[in-house]
Automatic annotation (TrEMBL), chains A, B:
First-level EC class: transferase
Reaction catalysed by this enzyme: N(2)-acetyl-L-ornithine + L-glutamate = N-acetyl-L-glutamate + L-ornithine; L-glutamate + acetyl-CoA = N-acetyl-L-glutamate + CoA + H(+)
Residues binding substrate: 158, 184, 195, 282, 405, 410
Subcellular location: Cytoplasm
Active site feature: 195
Species: Rhodopirellula halodulae
Name of this chain's protein: Arginine biosynthesis bifunctional protein ArgJ
Subunit architecture: Heterotetramer of two alpha and two beta chains.
Family, similarity comment: Belongs to the ArgJ family.
UniProt main location, coarse: cytoplasm
EC number: 2.3.1.35, 2.3.1.1
Pathway: Amino-acid biosynthesis; L-arginine biosynthesis; L-ornithine and N-acetyl-L-glutamate from L-glutamate and N(2)-acetyl-L-ornithine (cyclic): step 1/1; Amino-acid biosynthesis; L-arginine biosynthesis; N(2)-acetyl-L-ornithine from L-glutamate: step 1/4
Length: 410, 410
């Protein structure tokens, strides 16, 4: 059974799936000298599925990788950071293809078995000489130890302040399966992916179509429920790599019950990553959860929660530890879905500030102090008597975010 | 004919419409001691129309005033600032009614002929003793001179750094008509009104239904095309007061041709106010126009322009004078309407940075210097070959905005 407690944070040791090797190296794309090429290679052909940005302006690697998944013959997930290879025209597509060809030659597979991801600045051609030396070096450093996995997780980061990893073990029908994942943030984070890249690796035996459906469901309930700045990126990609290499007892493809168990465990891992991603939002000082109930449907509730989470006025109130609840209620009011104002109730960190359309007498200074003392704030909003509910997680909006993003390229 | 050049800024003297008096006084709702009660009274029953916030959470004065317009027997537009009378439950509605009754008693009309607007903090009961002394004092100070009009425009402001007024004279069929207007910003500014209040007064003879239709059209092309922070408020209201008192030659109700001329002139006045509102956005340092063309329809173009204008990453790039055009193009890509990436071209302040899907070689430092030297930036974005086009105006996003809104109530 799934044991949520086994979902570890990045501080804890990770057990890696069988049949997979990792590497993360620096090749000079990043002026800082930090790692910028990540390579994940399976020992044998593996199932690889992907979910991608919904932006119509998509980077060349997204166009290319999207055309290859889901597949049962995948071997490589190759990522560069520091340059998004987005809005780079025909040259960008050629560069993405060159990266795949080089990795395929090294690994000994077809270029169609290599998935490529890029993240970083938009609109600049990739420095291919550096990238190619990076790919060679990553290949030379592939290893199945935790150090290599962590280096790989480092190498997909851009403005992230810390690497984001999570893992879990799930036992299904007597077999132990590993789920070990990584992702990166940290700006352009919005629903329907973000400038986020993620890779979930597992040794569970899952077919390509099941892997695709499962990954989509996992992403919808985790990565698509977080927001830093509401800007959906050109590059967002989450990959699922399933080697199907189980313990010595052997195992056939997971049954639908088994897949459900695996998906629940993988969702916990992905949710952990999604929350790390929000906590590490550019300039984020505080992190908040908007929990909406009483809407007509779950999708209505999600739309309302997103509207609250996206409001700069709500975000700045969270930054200031300011229980300015009118901003939250009014953001629900313009979200779109029907709400019932005189059945609307808001509870912030356990304090009822607005009940059935009427403001409550509260000790605002005390509530503000409590909000400021926590790194997380919970806004629990009931908008009527319907059955719909949803949660959404977002970072606040700080002067540091503005400072950082005013100075990004020039 | 309409003479756009006659649309004056707030620095210039305003000619007031005939048959209308103004007052703006301080009654202590604002701790600062600034003016906080505005009163506009017509000499005789006048046409009053209104357009209102689309937020489902609406302030008591919006509920009340919305139920009274359009009308041909209007006499008063009464506004308090410093307190929005929003999310104030049953007590809030009683207070709004009390304000109308008091003004009606003073002016000698029915409470249904009094329109009330409020703006300021959400969720606090109105200090009615102060408000009532303010209404008396405003009535005592009513005057048809420019000083009273400017005091009235001051009294509707909240966090505005300057009052916003504009006026124009339009000659139709030999008659001169005045259009004299005011509005306030400056946070919670988003399409479909904002926390904006506005009053357009005129002495043109316009019937109530025509006034309503005309006002809606004016607002859609002006106030609904500006954004500071994307947060649609609970209180937004724009009123049109038409006294129908013309020059000594007399005039009957405007013909449809005459109304079109009047509407064009009034739209110019409203656009002037809308731009002042953006320029005075909370913490705004720079102001930008997004002009979209080549979309499938005008409404698609507007949706794309809004998406670009709302992106915190675009806004912070404008703040920094950073020609980070990938943020603009990618915000168009996730807006929703169909775009054609390889027919997408972006020109920033006259410099083509991206043409038909391919980045152009530019002198980024030079373009950045030019952006920084201007208080306005123009992003001209073609997204395909369709006939749809739209303009949208927005403020940037600064550390000052964040600082200000982190500290608003507590």
């Amino acid at each position: 059974m799934t044991d949520n407690a086994s979902t570890e944070t990045s501080d804890q040791p990770h057990v890696l799936p069988r049949g997979i090797r990792f590497a993360g190296v620096a090749c000079g794309i990043k002026a800082s000298g930090k790692r910028d090429v990540s390579m994940i290679v399976t020992d044998r052909p593996a199932v690889i599925a992907g979910v991608y940005t919904t932006n119509q302006i998509v980077a060349a690697p997204v166009v290319l990788t999207r055309s290859k998944t889901p597949t049962a013959s995948g071997r490589v997930v190759l990522t560069n950071s520091g340059n998004a290879n987005a809005c780079t025209g025909e040259e960008g597509m050629q560069n993405a293809q060159t990266m795949c060809q080089q990795a395929a030659d090294l690994v000994g597979c077809d270029p169609s078995d290599v998935m490529v991801m890029s993240t970083g600045v938009i609109g600049h051609p990739l420095p291919m000489e550096k990238v190619q030396s990076g790919i060679q070096s990553a290949f030379d450093n592939l290893s199945d130890d935790e150090e290599a996995y962590l280096a790989s997780a480092d190498a997909i980061c851009t403005t992230d302040q810390f690497r984001k990893t999570a893992s879990s073990t799930v036992t299904i029908d007597g077999h132990d399966y590993q789920i070990t994942a990584m992702c990166k943030g940290a700006g352009m984070i919005a629903p329907n992916m973000a400038t986020m890249l993620g890779v979930i690796t597992t040794d569970a035996p899952i077919g390509p179509d099941a892997a695709h459906a499962s990954l989509k469901s996992i992403a919808d309930s985790t990565f698509n429920r977080v927001s830093v700045d509401g800007h959906t990126s050109t590059n967002d990609t989450v990959m699922l790599v399933a080697t199907g290499l189980t313990d010595s007892k052997g195992a056939s493809e997971l049954s639908s019950d088994g897949l459900a168990l695996w998906q629940e465990a993988a969702s916990q891992v992905a949710l952990r990553l999604a929350k790390l991603l929000v906590a590490d939002g550019e300039g984020a000082a505080r992190f908040f959860e908007v929990r909406v109930s009483g809407a007509a449907s779950d999708s209505d509730a999600l739309q309302i929660a997103k509207s609250v989470a996206a409001s700069p006025l709500v975000k700045t109130a969270i930054t200031g530890g300011d229980p300015n609840w009118g901003r939250i209620v009014s953001a629900a009011g313009y979200a779109g879905p029907k709400i019932t104002p005189d059945r609307t109730t808001l509870v912030i960190d356990g304090v009822t500030v607005f009940e059935n359309g009427t403001p409550q007498k509260i000790d605002a200074a005390k509530l503000s102090a409590a909000m400021k003392a926590n790194s997380e704030v919970l806004a629990d909003l009931r908008v009527g008597d319907g059955p719909g509910k949803a949660s959404f997680w977002a970072s606040d909006l700080t002067e540091a975010y503005v400072r950082f993003n005013s100075l990004y390229t020039t």
